Amino acid sequence: MPGSLHKKHPLAIRWFHWINFPVLFMMIWSGLLIYWASDVYFVGSHKLFPQSFYQAMHIVEKGDDGKFHGRLALGMGWHFSFMWLFAVNGALYVLYTAISGEWRYLLPGRQTLNEALQVVLHDLKIRKQRLPKRKFNGAQQIAYTSVVTMGFGSLLTGIAIYKPAQFAWLTSLLGGYQVCRFIHFWLTMGYCAFFVIHILQVIRAGWNNFRAMITGYELIADETLAATEGQE
Ligand code: HEM
User: Which of ligand 1's atoms lies nearest the C-alpha of 191?
Assistant: First the structure.
C-alpha cells in the first residue's frame, strides 16, 4: 500500500499528553488513598468501594497486627506534590493550544453535535458512509474539550477543598466544601470512564493513529489522500 507520512501532532502536544498520563495516574491513585480515610459515598446502602476493592488495588496494607491500614499521609504527600505538575502541564497545554492555533482542531463548533452523532452511528456500524477526514471529528472534539474542562474543574474544586479557609470565597462560590468534594471526586470517576473509552478507541483506530501520538507523523495511503482531496 503506497503512501506518505504527514505531520499530525506537534511535539509539544505529544509531550504534554504523555506527561499527563503518569501524572494523572498518580493523582487518581493518591486520591484514592485519601478517599479511603473517609469514604462517604454510597450506592444504595452499600459503600461505593467495598473492602475487597481497596485490597485488590493495594489502597490498604496488612499491618503486623494482621489488620488492614490505610495510607492517608502517603496519599496526601503524593497528591499535593503531583498536583503542581498536573496544573503546570495542563496550563502549558492550554496555552500552547491557544497560541499555536491547535485549538481550531479541538474546540467544538456548530456542526460538532450532529457530527458526533454520525460518528457514534458509524462506530456502531449503523451508518456506512465515510467520516470526514479531519484531524479530530466531532466526537473527538467533544471528548477532548470535555476532559480538558474537567481538568480545570478538578483544579478549582481541588483548591477549594485544599485550603477552604484561605480560599473561602472560592469554596463558597462553588457551593461549599461538601459540593466541591463531591464534584472533585466524581470528576475523578469521569477520568476513569474517559480513560476506558479513550483506550478502546485508540485500539480500534489502530497502530498508525497511536504511532502518530508518539512520532508526530501518520501514514496516509495514496488512495485515501486522493479520495479525501477537496474535503475539508
Ligand atoms: C495509555 C494511555 C493513553 C494512550 C495510549 C493515549 C493515546 C492517545 C492517542 C493515540 C491520541 C491521538 C488520538 C486521536 O487521533 O484522536 C490521543 C489524544 C488525546 N488524549 Fe490520549 N492517550 C492516553 C491517555 C490519556 C489520558 C489519561 C488523557 C487525559 C485524561 C488523554 C487525553 C487526550 C487528549 C486531550 C487528546 C487530544 C490531544 C490533542 O491533540 O490536543 N489521553 N491519546
Answer: 30
- For residue 114, the enclosing domain spans 3-228
The best mutation among 155, 213, 217 to test binding of ligand 1, ranked by most ligand atoms within 8 Å of the C-beta, falls on 213
Ligand 1 in reach of 9 Cβ (< 6 A) = yes
pLDDT tens across 22-64, in order?
Answer: 999 999 999 999 999 999 999 999 999 999 999 999 999 999 9
pLDDT digits (tens, 9 = 90+) for 178-205: 999 999 999 999 999 999 999 999 999 9
pLDDT score for 232: 46
Query: DSSP string of 38-88?
Result: T---EETTEESS-HHHHHHTTSSEE-TTSSEE--HHHHHHHHHHHHHHHHH
**What is the Cα gyration radius of the chain?**
21
Residue 109: give its domain's CATH number: 1.20.950.20
What domain count does the chain have?
Answer: 1
d(CA 163, CA 231): 51
Ligand 1 in reach of 209 Cβ (< 6 A) = yes
Cell numbers standing for residue 124: 456502531
Phi-psi category of residue 44: left, alpha or beta, with phi > 0 → left and psi -120 to 50 → alpha:
left
